[in-house]
From TrEMBL:
InterPro entries: AminoTfrase-like_pln_mobile, MAIN-like. One of its GO terms (biological process) is meristem maintenance. It comes from the Eukaryota. Residues 474-499 are annotated as: Disordered. Residues 61-409 form the Aminotransferase-like plant mobile domain. Residues 478-488 have a biased composition (Basic residues). This is Aminotransferase-like plant mobile domain-containing protein.
Amino acid sequence: METTGDPGPIDNVVLHDQDNHVSSAVWDGQERGVLRCHEHTSLLDQWKLTAEQIELVGKAGFHYLRMIPAINFDSALIAALVERWRRETNTFHLPVGEMTITLEDVALLLGLAIDGEPVIGVTSSTPSLLCEKLLGRVPEDLTGGMVKLTWLKEFFSQCPKDAPVEEIECRTRAYLLYLVGSTIFSTTTGNKVPVMYLSLFEDFDKAGKFAWGAAALAFLYRALGNASLKSQSTISGSLTLLQCWSYYRLNVGRPRFNQEPNQGCFPLVLWWKGKQSGSRMKCNIVSYRKALDSLKPSDVEWLPYKDIDHTVIPEDIKNTLTLRASRTMLICFEKAERHLPDRCLRQFGMLQGIPNDVHRWERKSRAYDHGVDILGKMQYELDEWAMRRFYVVEGDDDVDEKEYMQWYEKITRKFVGRLTSVESEFKGKVEALNEIADMLGKFSEDGMDFQDRKLLDEVKDIVHKYLMDEVGDSPKKIGMKSTKKRKRKDDSICEDGQC
């Protein structure tokens, strides 16, 4: 491929925000490196829940999320995936077409409900009053309507066995706030969570009726979109979901195991919790970028859940998977993001045609501070979520996917990194060898003992040999007598660029 070719998009009707995207900076040689990943799960196992608390956590809809252990993040892989994310479509733009994290993925990987009431509540309550009412105490620091995770852990992580019901409920709400604040709703602040989520845990039975999975996906979509801007250096949201989605779907950075993991477990994220070996955790972002830039259809698992044991999927989750391909609005308080399965139909076993145009929508600003009438600002988005069952995308057997790919190649960003041609790599290698030869030729042997001079001559011999092998002609003088390269029996003349 040409090193100076236009990476796209040729037509910016879809990717209209290319100038602000991180791929533009990378193309111009402005590397930002890996992103700082903010998911704070490492201390979750230090919370000691009683049987009563575990029951309440399950009622609230987090029975399976509670079971997911902390995983090691591959920051380079996450950063490379973000370079492919486009906030205009809420999809990854890959060489094989668009892909995304869907409602199906969040339901099966995290075990969260993707149907139910939208995760939105009143943000007009004063944070201190909310803490007093639902936690029984108020932290000294509530800057920006946020509470420190460390404060929650310090005061609520150990529940006495003989605690009264009211205290058990307060400590469980604190745990739930810590749980969502360190996983699905983690923020780039580092160790804080908005108090506004606390209002959703006042009644545990009502909490269990929320579509937590849809909210987690809305939050992650927003986090990916923000992180894809070249001005950003951090990412939050459920990075466990992001990384394990990639493990299931893409043969890039996927770890291997010492032994075959237990496939009969749920949620499916647990499939990756076994001891890993041969992992590519040491790959850098450039390596992953190249792998994604050259991704082939054979590197993609379009239907990774097809052969799993479906008896492990809880019935309540299985019954809602009809919504997996719903073209709808995902809601998490002020964060409303479009779920666009019609752009990724192959992930549902359908043929991919040219998708509908994406209508731009207003992304609301933060609503952490009290006094905000968030419900009044979100009526359009709430109405769209209410109609989710009527907009489940169906496939078309008459679709020509070649036509789709021809269209896609015009509207997408073909590659992120500059692709170096074979000729350029060869030229660069020879130039580097010649530079080494020049340095060795200028190296003074004055004051060297016999052993040092012998070592220097050996290095010169190595460089000389490599130059002869690569160039096929006399190398530059490097302070020693050159010898002509002897013609080997298998030497041949290249014709038309082929040997």
